[in-house]
Amino acid sequence: MDLLLQFNARRLRVFALRRSTPAPQRCQAPLSLFILTIALISGHPHLHAQAVPPQVPSTAAAQATYSSSSASSTTPDAPLPQQTDFADVPRATPLPPAKPPETLTLDSDTQSQDGDLYTLKGNVEVHYGDHTLYADTITYNKANAQLTLEGHVKLVGGENNEYLQASHGDYNLHNGTGHFYDVNGSIQPRVATAGPTNAKTTVVGASAPPDRTPYTNANPFLFWGREVAKTGPDDYTIYNGSVTSCLLPHPDWQLFSSRFTLSDGKAHAGRTTFKLLGLPLLFLPYVSHPTDTTQRQSGILIPVFGYSSASNHTGSKGITIGEQVYVVVSRSVDFTVGTIFYSLRGWSENGTVRYKGPGDDYLTGHFTALQDRGFYQPTQTGVDPVSGTPIIQNVYTNQGGQDVTVAFRYRLDPATRVVADGEYLSSYIYREAFTENFNQAVSSDITSTVFLAHQSNGHAMDIRIDRYEGQKVVPVADHTGEEVKIFHAPSLDFTGIDRGIPGTPFFYNVQASAAAMKRVQPNFVSPITGRIDVRPEISLPAAFGGWHLMASAAVRETAYTDSRKAPYGPNATPIDADAGLNRADFEFNFDIRPPAIERTFTVPARWHWLLGDQVRHTIEPEITYRDVRGAGNFLNVLRFDDVDLVSDTNELRYGVVQHLYFRPKKQKPLPGCPATTSASEPEEETPHATTDANGIPEAETTAPDSPTRTHVKRFDPCARRGPAPQQEWFSWELAQKTFFDRNFGGAVIDTRRNIFESTLNFSGIAFLTEPRAISPLISRMRFRTSSHADVEWDFDYDTGAKKFNSSNIFLDAHEGNWFGGFSYAKLNAPGRSYTENISSVTNTVTGLTSSATADFSQMRVLLGYGSPTRPGLALAGGAGIDLNAGDAQYTTLQAGYNWNCCGISIEYRQYNLGPVRDEGAYRFNFTLANIGSAGNLRRNEALF
User: Fold this and answer.
1) 24, part of any domain
2) How far apart are the first and last CA of the chain?
3) Where does a domain end: 441, 471, 504?
4) 706 burial class (0-12, 13-18, 19+ CB within 10 angstroms)?
5) 755 in the same domain as 637
6) Whose CB among 62, 133, 204, 243 lies 3.0–4.6 Å from 300's, allowing a Cys bridge?
7) Cβ-count burial of 532 within 10 angstroms (0-12 exposed, 13-18 middle, 19+ buried)?
8) Mean pLDDT, range 695-716, rounded to an integer
9) Is the pLDDT of residue 606 over 70?
10) Residues 287 and 350 in one domain
11) Same domain, residue pair 524 and 468
12) Distance between CA 760 and CA 757 in Å, rounded?
């Protein structure tokens, strides 16, 4: 019968007393050992080392092993059971590694012993585990591991890098607790690593991770106290003392309280006085801050204060005071609720809820509202018929409203998910007047979408409900404004990838949808319109000699339950025809991709610093022919989305894409390394992957010839690295279309903007106002000289009208502490636009001037120096300028300075958005390093 043997090793704690001088006495604690010896008979077959198998053996294999072992034994054979259940046999499992025994070492000039009591005097050092204690005199009680320390006491070490200086104290070695008096000390608490998140810290108990990294330093958490009680490895209580993160002896700021508590990664204090530069500045009833900034904590956020410089008759908000409460519901859910009081306008409520589930699941909701008291604004209501002078009256204006946004994603199973992104806005004026985000203030579109999607085996099915609302004309004194609303309630869509037809070189795919839709616009409300759209397609690809060809043919059938009357003229209001409509068309596409032309150039030595030693130039032509026939009833189709924009066309698209790739220059050998060494990996003459500016491999990229290494090699700092992959330095796309059917099957209406599927897929800027044969020339040009600079220029040039329909320039650069950005947007294209007529007397809108052309020029600039996460000066300024009006719609200036342990930032913002918002706002932010910030200049709204 086999034997199962189990050995338990007893941990031994060894006490050794070493002398630091020749004279002192030496005493040593007794050492006890238990030794267990087992004598085994030599060659006994049942006593052998037990090996832990990687997996549980099968029953048959186990029985065979058992039989073989028994057969070779010298003992009598035992009868085998009919069936052996090896699940009942205990399995050997490795025990976790035990903590190494802690050694106590006592060093001193003189030592004495009285039973369990040891007395050490003169330069005493006690080493135990990861702690070291120093004192003039230490008494050690071996029975309870208690130390009594007197004179020049120090405690150093531990997980928090403790450093305590005290006049006297006591300390227990076993549980790591003790009391110290007249203490100066520091600990190095855990701090969140720099990354995309940071702690939203408060002085009254809240911490959550917002968007940007806070100002931190390497200073420890410094404290002073009459008494410090260490109640655990990470727990401290400080009595009648102060805390700071500034360097001593002259800290910039300090918090004073009769009691500070540090436990579970959090610091708490009550009745606290905050001193700045030695002057009492704030009295705080309660202070709480997590020393571990990766944790979240419920509490009350720091109040915010602000001031609006607008005059009372232009909607000044007055003095602003706000407060919020942050609540951590669970590790996955938290929410924030608060209110803001505007002294001249009223109360505003806000709230945010967040949920982070497994994987990519999340939910975010935000709510704001304002109960506006309103204000009286001098407004020109007419002109005196006798004197011709404007008639000015005080008109009551209320800008209150509500804004609710919700976004979530939830995965039902690996192939099915629910996604939503919605917004409800009760008033565009409310958002324009009270949002702090300039892009939100000038936005006039609201979209909401909810869909359930299922993807499997190359097919995708989804059911979608969406709502679009766009403000096309702003309401003014003599105009009620115009809005367009479009609903899909719901829409079912099916798409599939190309699949081969067995036994043939052909591929096929099918796209289909069914939707119920509604459109609301001034003077027209459509009934709920049903639509079914089916589009099967068959294609034939071919490739030879570097040429790639693709021919495809598709039929499309679209049925509507409603339509509009035709013909109609420019800007005509739709009239419901109260009749269904069927559209059937045939589509043919032929795509030609000739071989790419490329050449590699050697770069002169003087340009190696910019382009490396080689530059590769590639030219990739593109030609596509498209013919659509059968959509001659285009004018009878109601417009809901891009499915309704299909029209007859006969066109040829041609273009060319150029790229310039460069290979970074080879790095020089590191100091101390030879000029030529063997590479860790074989250097390739031609890299396998050619990447564009976004680091995405080209389509022609092939797999490496040798397998990819799956284990970590020993790092050799002198080993020669393989060549860096090529990087895209310059790209330029040029494209144009020729229309053989200049009238698009009779769909073009003169003197108005015409949008078809063919033109929308080519350019986002409308250009059809009459039948034409040539489209504008589109250009997309991008420079990326280095990782520090990026330049892009996109334009649409109308070769017939000899003008730019659009021109957009973007520049982004950063070098060291300097950063900057520039953008220019020019639009001169067909489309109704309105210009507000503003009275120079009252600064109010008196009317609108319409135009058939959308013509505007906008410019954005940003320039700055410094960083909010580093000590020193930081400056930045930005502006949004309307070049046509010659006014700055938005201007902001921000300055900040960070000292060793604190910093301050000040910002001024000016909004000039017409009569709705013409105000300046001042903001500030005071930051304590490693602690948090106070003020109304939020990190996610700052310039840097």
Assistant:
1) no
2) 77
3) 504
4) exposed
5) yes
6) 204
7) middle
8) 40
9) yes
10) no
11) no
12) 5
| Residues 225 and 188 reside in one and the same domain | yes
Which pLDDT does position 13 carry in this prediction? Answer: 33
Average pLDDT over residues 396-403: 92
Task: Say yes or no: 588 and 728 in one domain.
Answer: yes
Note whether 613 and 602 are within 8 A (CB): yes
Task: Tell which wins on pLDDT, 268 or 45.
Answer: 268
For the full predicted model, state whether its pTM sits above 0.85: no
What per-residue confidence (pLDDT) applies to 779?
97
| CA-wise closest residue to 221 among 290, 304, 132, 272 | 290
439 in helix, strand or coil?
helix
What is the arithmetic mean of pLDDT over 146-174? Answer: 91
- Report whether 794 contacts 779 (CB < 8 A): yes
Running DSSP on this structure, what letter comes out for residue 754? B
Give the rounded distance of the alpha carbon of 845 from its chain centre: 40
HSE-CB of 808 using CA atoms within 13 angstroms = 13
Six-digit token pair at 362? 């999340």
Residue 738 pLDDT > 60: yes
How far is Cα 919 from Cα 457, in angstroms, rounded to an integer?
A: 56
315 close to 919: Cβ distance less than 8 angstroms: yes
Summarize the confidence of residues 458-465 as an average pLDDT: 96
> DSSP readout, 804-845?
EEEEEEEEEEEETTEEEEEEEEEEEEEEEEEEEEE-TTT--E
Q: What are the residues whose beta carbons fall under 8 Å from the beta carbon of 409, sequence distance 6 or more?
A: 360, 361, 362, 363, 417, 418, 419, 420
Q: 190 with 253, same domain?
A: yes
Are 296 and 378 contacting, i.e. CB atoms less than 8 angstroms apart? no
- Is the alpha carbon torsion for 161, 214, 922, 338 positive or negative? negative
Asked whether residue 26 carries a pLDDT value surpassing 50, the answer given is no
Burial letters for 739-763: b for 16+ Cβ neighbours within 10 Å, e otherwise? bebeebbbbbbeebbbbbbbbeebb
Within 10 Å of residue 777's Cβ, how many Cβ atoms? Answer: 17
* pLDDT at residue 96, rounded to an integer: 57
Q: Report the DSSP beta bridge partners of residue 649.
A: 628
Residue 568 located in a structural domain: yes
Distance from C-alpha of 340 to C-alpha of 371, rounded to nearest angstrom: 11
Contact between 303 and 323 under an 8 Å Cβ cutoff? The reply is: yes
Q: In the structure encoding, which two tokens stand for residue 682, read together?
A: 């074989």
CATH number at residue 243: 2.60.450.10
Q: Is 566 among the domain residues?
A: yes
Give me the mean pLDDT over the 501-530 stretch. 96
Q: How far is CA 70 from each of CA 1, 57, 669, rounded to the nearest angstrom? A: 10, 18, 66
Q: Per the structure, how many domains does the chain have?
A: 3
**pLDDT band of 841, cuts 50, 70, 90:** low
Higher pLDDT, 225 or 58: 225
Same domain, 472 and 354: yes
In a domain, 371, yes or no: yes
Pairing of strands 104-108, 15-19: parallel
Residue 181: exposure state from Cβ atoms within 10 A (0-12, 13-18, ≥19):
middle
Based on the fold, state whether residues 754 and 623 are members of the same structural domain.
Answer: yes
Q: Kindly report, residue by residue over 527-568, the tens digit of the pLDDT.
A: 999 999 999 999 999 999 999 999 999 999 999 999 999 888
| Number of residues assigned to the chain | 944
Q: Whole-angstrom Cα distance, residue 249 to residue 911? A: 45
- How far apart CA 798 and CA 776 sit, in angstroms, is 4
Closest by CA to 266, choosing from 307, 311, 221, is 221
Give the separation between CA 353 and CA 325, rounded to whole angstroms. Answer: 12
Q: Which of 285, 300, 315 is the last residue of a domain?
A: 300
What residues pair up with 691 in beta bridges, in sequence order?
A: 697
Q: Return all residues near 615 (Cβ < 8 A) that are at least 6 apart.
A: 600, 601, 603, 660, 661, 662, 729
Q: Tell me which residue range forms the domain holding 188.
A: 104-300
- For residue 723, whether the previous peptide bond is cis, meaning omega lies within 30 degrees of 0, is no
